[in-house]
Structure prediction request, 684 residues.
Amino acid sequence: MQHEETVEKDEKQRQLDQYRVDLQGTRLTTDQGVLIDDTDNSLRPGERGPTLLEDFHFREKITRFDHERIPERVVHARGSGAYGQFRVYESLAEYTVADFLCDPSLVTPVFVRFSTVAGSRGSADTVRDVRGFATKFYTRQGNYDLVANNMPVFPIQDGIKFPDFVHSVKPEPHNEIPQAQSAHDTFWDFVQCQPETMHFVMWLMSDRAIPRSFRMMQGFGVHSFRLVNAEGRATFVKFHWKPLLGTHSLLWDEVLRIQGNDPDFNRRDLWEAIERGDFPEWELGLQLVPESDEHAFDFDLLDPTKIIPEEIVPVRPVGRMVLNRNPQNFFAETEQVAFCTANVVPGIDFSNDPLLQARNFSYLDTQLIRLGGPNHAQIPVNRPVAPVHNDQRDGYNQRMIHQSETSYSINSINGGCPMSGILSGDMSGVFQHYQERVDGRKIRKRSPSFEDHYTQATLFWNSMSSWEKDHIVNAFRFELGHVKRRYIKEKVVEHLVQVDHELATRVAAGLGMPEPAAGPPNHGRSSPALSQANSTRETIATRKIAILVADATDAGALTPVKEALEGQGAVCELLAPHEGTAGTLTVDRQLTSAGSVLYDAVLLADGGALAGDGYAIHFVREAFKHGKAVGALQGGGALLDAARLPDRQGVVGPEAAGDPFVQDFAEAIKVHRHFDRDVAAFPA
Ligand code: HDE
Prediction:
């Protein structure tokens, strides 16, 4: 894989450097810069006396502590981020005047924050949920925020329903249960009352909702936006991020165990990959639709519950993003980063999607309360690299010292500055709204073109491989299994009949319901691009392999295999019954402190002691049950036998020694998960 090597700091890095505080070799002071003698004992009259009010250091320290928290985001509270860079492949000047999309020599700094939606800040990473994928491009023409998700459709069509939707999925108000879960009555009640959710629900019940890694997730801008070129001509656009590592997911059973084993699974994965130098990369892709084709589809381009199938309008790869730097302070950077869909630059404009219109209001409003006022764009992570000059003034936490006597326009005292394009007569580089003609009566009404809620839900179902369908059915059964009210489950099944009768029947069977009556015939169309089965499976780069070793492991046999796997980019960890060393090998982790669920594959290098170790046997069987590649070197044969695996798909035994072993094992890992194994009756 190609890595963007950045020897020189980009503009954003240089800007951030001004704010960094290095505490190495410093002496302790108050916030006022006064040196402190003792921060471990408060001031008191006599050793056993009460604390004195005049202890300003004590009061300042406690006061600052009391005020450390800011409100968490109402949605997307849990997230983690990284800096990186974006570069366009070739000029898109035919479509847009956005500088960063027109100049292939330009490296644009970015900050990306990935998130879950429903859970609180401290919730587990690997829950069934949508993932946020928000990118801030620090362009020379100002900040552009592409605030995307890892699913291309949304549950609702109009932003006025967002509070209703979010209230339904959040913990129920009477007892604040459950945390970070959609498996409860109010969410499914919302779904059954609101059939526009059906396409989204199919995605949410699919493996997309439990990604293996943020680095292996697609991103979607969801709405149709507009690109606008120098002639003022607009083109509708849908934004896509495609990960170079492919799009891969976890298994539901795995997820349940990871939550206890490592609640920070996705966050840690991103952090560690970047620290290792395994910089995640995505291609930016565009689906472009000329304005003249606005009504050419059997759905409405303005409806955010719909995709444009890639087979109808292909995704054109236009650029590449690499994330290559972890933040240095979580709160200052990841918690305070403020995205807003209204942060656009010349050449990028909105459509009339009613969800997007609501978002353009909501994000700035959110930031006013979260970040304590209107000056949050001055917080280092949010500061544009483009110069900022205007007559907006004052407010909480103003950090600028404006020197001019004037703060109004039009003025004559300051030579009319800062001067708008219109006043100066210089319109170069200014943002000009796309001049769309809009006529209509003021009404609270949706267009009939938004009414079809099932066709694309069916398209999604039809596009799934058989194992993806199994996972969707199991997800519906799990979720509805947690719903207490029978009639809600029945109503959901009625909606599923509209999507596909087989799906509804399989879900109903799990809920102990009779086979539902036939619904409308399935249209039979599919879109192969929707299936993760068609994702990239060409690399083992960054895949985590657990190597099980013990004191008598043959290091001579293991080392070349490990090196060959690492040579292909895999990340190997040696697990043994105890920490320290196993023979001449250095142990990375104690076997009992790490579940198989934290790895993509397992390599058995020792069968002597481990063949009789129940934990090691469980480790192998669980990895197998979760579809992972299992490899056994000569020494590991006894452990492989002890694990009594029911079939050999994705299992590479010691008979393929040497290079063929490495090759076969790597091929088995590339598959990601061997879902065709028959594990239904196999206890881990
Ligand atoms: Fe958001 N959304 N959203 N959303 N959203 C927020 O803004 C909102 C929507 C998305 O990492 C909030 O600063 C409304 C779609 C991401 O900081 C809030 C509506 C998509 C993030 C908000 C939507 C998203 C947010 C909470 C319907 C995918 C995390 C904190 C009209 C395309 C950004 C904040 C980050 C965050 C409102 C719909 C993605 C409350 C009202 C559609 C990735 O303002």
